[in-house]
Amino acid sequence: MNIKFIESWQGRLLQILIVFLPPVFFLKNVYLFLGMVLSLLLAWAMIRLQNKTWQDVGLRKPEHFGRLLLITLIATAILLPLSHVIIDAVKNLTGTVPNLEAFAVLRGNIAALAGGLVIAWIFGAFIEELLFRGFLLNTLYKVLAKEGSLQWFTWSVAIFITSVFVGIGHSYQGIVGMVGTGFIAVGFSIIYLLNRRNLWSCILAHGLYDTVAFIQVYAEVSMG
Question: Domain boundaries in the chain?
Fold first, then answer.
């Protein structure tokens, strides 16, 4: 690809389409994880075409690990109860509940919980954050950024669109799950920006959130 086209808004939109085709194709398929791995490889290829690396989008050693950890822990502690409030509100509005049948195997099953946590940290926390925060959020920002535009507004729009993508990706959980995961994705994006676009912050936050959620399902604790 011509570098000028790659860096144009049309080229960046094409990159997004290429990267997210595999998980869309496998969305309701047992090969979803394979689709995510293919997307990660394609995202890496698109980043390399721009003469950049994962480090350039945030997969780097934190400048101040203590600051990153503190912001991440505080933000996650706020996000956990707040997301339950949002989920409750959507449940009341729609009269439906999240479809968590995909996680039913976790209930009272310690072996399934252990395996689920490994999968959650690898595919949910690590790969999803590389794809949605590292690749998609940054690419959308570059598509939307115009000379003289307000950075905070451009980031806000990019975060909203990214979160819609995330919600659609969790359509198997129903409308409540889609809105809930979309809201959580907004939180992870804010954590990412607060920590100066360091991916380890949202990877850690995502992993912690999923860990708590999986333990709740295991113990059959009400999600709100």
Answer: 63-218
